[in-house]
Amino acid sequence: MPLPKYQALKQLELQALNLYKFNTRVRTNIICSGFLFGNGEQNDIFYEFFRCAWVSLHPQLAALPVVAGGNNHLPTIHVKDLANAVERTITQGDQYADYMIAVDSSTE
Questions:
Q1: Its pTM surpasses 0.85
Q2: At CA 67, angle to CA 32 and CA 54, rounded to 5?
Q3: Longest C-alpha distance within the chain, in Å?
Q4: Is residue 57 within 8 Å of residue 17, measured between CB atoms?
């Protein structure tokens, strides 16, 4: 269940995906992205982590916070990669309703 401020968006997604059941000529794709970065988008996402790592000279203050044992991953995607994913979905996508999550899976 989404947070109250996102419930309207979730309902819109579900309605869009159900539209295909009533009209198979309509192609519906919902693309959910990871945290956007690059080209100035939401630069504050990583700000606190970079500040902790770069600004502080004290080793304990410079340490990044560890959550859940440090094995968690944040889904991220560069804004240009998201734009490419949207373009590929429009030009080469399947002909049915779909829900996709766009994240950067590179290991570099």
A1: no
A2: 90
A3: 62
A4: no
Length of the chain: 108
SS3 92: helix
* Residue 64 to residue 48: CA distance in whole angstroms: 9
- The answer, yes or no, to whether residue 87 has pLDDT greater than 80, is yes
Residues sharing a CB contact under 8 Å with residue 98, sequence separation 6 or more, in sequence order = 28, 29, 30
Angstrom CA distances, 55 to 42, 70, 78, 91, stand at: 20, 22, 25, 45
Continuous segment of H or E residues that includes residue 69:
none
- Is 62 within 8 Å of 56 (Cβ atoms)? yes
Q: Hey, what are 52's tokens?
A: 């902790």
